[in-house]
Each structure stands twice: as structure tokens, then as C-alpha cells.
Design brief:
heterodimer, A: 312 residues, alpha+beta, five-stranded antiparallel sheet, four-stranded antiparallel sheet, 10 helices, elongated, B: 314 residues, 31% helix, 27% strand
Chain lengths: 312, 314
Amino acid sequence: MPDRLERLVNLTATLLDTRRPITLDEITSRIEPGYPDDKIARRRQFERDKETLRELGIPISVETADGFGSEQAYRIHARDYYLPDLGLSDAELAALHVAITAVRLEGDDARDALRKLGGVTGEGAEAAVTELPVTPALTQLFEAVSAHRPVEFRYRGERRSLHPYGVVLRWGHWYVVGHDLVRDAPRAFRVDRIEGDPELGPPASFTPPPGTDPRDFVRDDPLAYGEDQPLDARVLVDAPRAPWVVEQLGAESVVDRRADGSVVVTMPVVNRAAFRTWVLTLLDHAEVLAPPELRADMVEWLDTLAAAQSHA
Amino acid sequence: MSPRPLVGPRLQRVLALVPYVLTHPHVTVSELAARFEVSERELERELELLPMCGLPPYTADRLIDVAVVDGEVTIRLAEYFERPLRLTPAEGLALLAAGRALLAVPGSDPDGPLAHALDKLEGALGARGRLAVDVGGGGDHLERLTAAAADHERVEIDYYSFARDEMTTRRVDPWRVFHAFGAWYLAAWCHAVDDERLFRVDRVRAVRPTGERFDPPLHDGELPELVYSARPEDPRVTVVLGPAAAWVVESVPHEAAEQLPDGGWRVVLAVSEPAWLERLLLALGDDAVVEAPPDLRDLAAGAAARLRSRYGAG
């Protein structure tokens, strides 16, 4: 194995240093420690080495050798390999170290990244603050976002086609957001609900409109997300739950504070089902006051449920 | 004996280490080992390997020159390794996501070294402003509780228990504040029950000082387990869900789930607090029917009738 590591370092060095693509014969006749003499074994060993380098993200370019027509030749282009100098100060490196210790992710990718940027420095965080779910699909989508590559994937049984503008973590879930080419409209998709692997199109296929903020694509609140005729609801909330609701909706939503500590809040409703569910989470401590149609909705919902007594 | 490290990770380390030494001549062995998180012994092994590497025909002027003098390392004749390998998409994503998440924690410095580092990183990845992490939703008391945990300060909190739908006041020793599944949690010793408890920070209504301190427990820095575990004494409730309520299987912890021919599900839930089940059933309406136990079959109807009484004749 020490031989193999040595050869892999030498292979990388040679492919980086060469100014023209070199063939398998040239590689195997020059590089030490040598490849097997047998032609088939040699090819197999080279393929294994190439695979190991690719797994580390080393970009080996396969080209046509000069003057040899169809014979394959290999090189590593400097522009694909070299990490540009980010000019990180030691304080900035230490801050990234704190981040990857405070925020836990599966795998070693964050640490590997930090080593490339100049290694681990500073103390790191004492304890984890959160952990993030990072999946292979998310990595592919992030690559599509960075390289402006269109993506296609299956979502809830449908084929979707997207110009991805960003990835957003909200409410503990990752979303990929962008312009949906089928719907011709902005859309957000939950990454963990994408079925199978996303398929990436060619780089530099689109330009995100200037000033787009991926966060704007993910709606905050199911209550604000719907197609129903907009209505302004007024809800009476009893004293014990009043502070909780006021914090959720903001003080500007309060239209009446009553002597017993209860409050009347107003809120826009564009999704009647989400509104009903929200009021029901307050159980006995809330009452829909207005408008009459939302009050009637709630009464009807409760009447139907109350009538569904079992006949055991 | 520890297993032999794989060739991939060692190669990765060499390709990161060489550029660092090339740009930081005379770095000490101990600093290098710390930066690249290897023992000095392992580091020496890599440094012994390098002088055998280089370019064909592997003559002295083509081999990497490594000098370790008085514990200081210098490398020459390896210009082709002068820059490290680009970050893979997975590496870029992991580092950026971790950084963005920490920067989004209330109380972080939006103009400090982390913010500057992320800005540079995003520039290099071609991802400026393309990745956002939202860890909001901590409510008014997140920073106060985080500070109390850091200072080992015992506090009294007013807490709304959502599952039981009731308001309580208790003295707690705040151990850890952390974010998981889109919400902030406080892990604490609760003096009311004399046991460890998790609290949702956004349901804390008030925090009052007690003037007392506590000795923090030893912990390993890992996040507390948040996986829901049912207590043996919790009643098991079998609910039949219609196809429209299939999301419950994804979002609600359950003990068993069986898909039905119509696309619906039969699930078994461990229910520690009836108020929690009431909410679920009230929201699902026709799409959920309790099958067992018999005495809970009318839970939703009873709750609906109770809530309905507020609305008078309609």
C-alpha cells in the first residue's frame, strides 16, 4: 500500500505538470512505482487509480492524444484542480472551525474542506448547537445552484424541471427553490421528498435574476399560503393562551385586549383549512368571531365531527 | 493495533498538507500535526514518503525536497502542488451550511470573522447568497436562556405545555440550548419533577432569576437525543387514516403503521397526553377514525361537542 500511495501522489503530480494530455502507455512507462507489465492488469490498475483520484474530487480530463486520432489521453487542468486563494485570516479559519464543531453534519466533508483552506485552528465550540441533515441529493442540487445547471427530478409522482436559484433550510427541512419551467412560476420543493436522484443539465444554462433571495421562495407560514378568497378573520383567544398567540402573530394583530386577559386578534386568511387547524390547536381557548362564513365553517366542521359518534 | 488508514484519506491529507507547507515555510511539526489533526508520528510518516515522490524520471532535481530542521518543516520542488485541490460540492456545501447555520443563531456577530469567511467562501464557490439557513423561532427568551446555561444560572420559568395544554411554573437548571427539527430546545434539570426534561424555548413565557447557581453535568458536547420514546404505560391508540391524512405517518412518531388498500394507513400511536390526540383528530376530521381502544372512539366527537358549545346556536 505505501507503494500505491506513492504512485497516486506521483500520478497526480505528473498529470498536473504535463502540458499536453498523455496516454496510458506514456503514464505507465514513466510513473514509479511501476504498473504491472501485463497489459490487461496494467489497464485495470490504472483504472483503479483513476477512480481513487476521482473519488477525492481530482478532475481528470480525458482527451485525445496529439496526432493519435482516437487514442485516449489524460491530464489534470490547473483551472479545474487549484483552489483559488480565499485569503482567509487565522481568525476567519478559527471561526469556521467553531462553526463546524457547533453545527454537526454527517460525514467529514466540512473538516476535509477546512483542511484544504488551511487546516484546523483555534479551540472549536464546546458543545454542539444544532445538527443539519445533509443528503447526496442536496449536494447535487447545491452543485446545480452554484454552476447554474438546470435540474430535473420526480416530486410527488410528477416530473419537475427547475432552474435552481438556491437551497434553504427552514423548519428543519431543506428546500430547493427556483423557477419551475413547467409551471413557469417560482416554486420551492422539499429536498427529502424528491424521488430518486436529481438529473443535472449543462453548466451556465441560466442566470438567476439579480436580487433574488432564495429565502423569499419558501413561505413562512401555511396560513399565508393558499388560494382561497382572502378574508380577515377575528379570533377571540382566552387569557391563558393570549401571550402565545400574540407572540406568534405580532402585537399589531391585537384589536382588543379585554379585562379578563383575553384578546381579540385579526389575521388574514387565504387557506381556510390551515386557519381551522390553527384555531383547533388552541382547543377550548379560542373562538372564531368573524367573518360569518369562517365562523360557520368552524361550526359545520365541529357539528360533523360531533355527530360522528361511534355506534359501538 | 488500529486498522491501517485507507489510501484515499492519506492522499487527501498529503494534497492539503503540501500546499500549506509550501506557503508557510518553517512551520513546526507540532503546529502542522495540530492543523491537520494527525499525530506527530503519522505526520512524520507522510513527510518520509514525500521525498520519494515527484516527477519522472525521479532524479534528485525532480523529487520533492523535504527538510525538517529543529522541528521546522520546509518543502521545495513541488510547485505543481502549490495550491490545494478545489473543494468538492459536498465539502463546499457542508462548510457553508455549518457556517450559515451558526451565523443565523441569534446573538451571532453579523459582521465578524465568520461572516467574512463565509463571504469569501461563497465567492469562491460561485454561490453568493444562494444558501440560506433559518434557525429562527426561538421566541423572546432564547438569548436569556442561552446566557443562563453558559453562566450555570438556575432560573424559574413559566412554561406552556402544548401536549397537556396547560401553563406551569418551575425551577430549572438550564444545561444546553440547541436547535433541532426547526425548533429551539432547552435541556434542563427540572426541580418540579426532579428529572431531566426538554423544553421548547418558544413555549417559555417568562424567565426569572433565582440568584442560585448549579454545577453543570458533564457532557460530551453531543446533542441530546431527541428521538421520541414512548413510555410503557402510555395508552396505545389505533387510528385509521384516510389517504388525505397519509402525511401523519411521515410527521408523527408511531409504533406501527400498515398501509391500507385505499392508500390510507392504520397506525398505532403511543398517547401520553389526551390533548395532543384531540388536536390531531380535530384537525383531521373525517380523515381519521379511532379503532381502539373502545373508550377513545368518541374522543374527537366529545372534543368537537365541547368546542362547539362556545358557538351557541351557531
